[in-house]
Design a protein that fits this description.
Strand content: 5-15%
Order of helices and strands: HEE
Shape: elongated
Helix content: 25-40%
Radius of gyration: 35 Å
Largest sheet: 2 strands, antiparallel
C-alpha cells in the first residue's frame, strides 16, 4: 500500500482565532463606552453653564455698560449712520459737511 499524503491547505488562512476576535470586540465596546461618557459629560457641562447663565440672552453686550476710559467720541457731523433692515441689508448714510 502506498503511504497517504496530507493535502496542503488551499485558500485564505484564518487571520485571528476566536479568542482574539472576542478580545478585540471587548476593546471596541470599552472604547465606545468611554467616548459616550465623555460626550455626555461635555453636554452636561455645557447645559449647566447655559442654564446657570439664564440662557443666551445674557451673552448680548450693551455699549451703555462700557466705561468711558480712553474712548474718543466722534462728532455727529462726521459719523456715518448705519440702517440695518430686517433682511440683513445695511444702508450707510454719510452726512454732508
Amino acid at each position: 500500500m502506498a503511504k497517504m499524503e496530507e493535502k496542503a491547505k488551499v485558500g485564505r488562512p484564518r487571520l485571528a482565532d476566536p479568542e482574539l476576535i472576542k478580545d478585540s470586540w471587548y476593546r471596541v465596546a470599552a472604547s465606545l463606552s468611554i467616548v459616550l461618557m465623555l460626550v455626555m459629560g461635555g453636554l452636561g457641562i455645557l447645559t449647566a453653564q447655559i442654564t446657570t447663565s439664564k440662557g443666551l440672552d445674557n451673552a448680548k453686550a450693551s455699549v451703555v455698560n462700557v466705561k468711558k476710559k480712553n474712548v474718543r467720541v466722534i462728532p455727529a457731523k462726521t459719523a456715518e449712520t448705519r440702517i440695518i433692515n430686517v433682511d440683513g441689508t445695511v444702508t450707510r448714510i454719510i452726512p454732508a459737511k
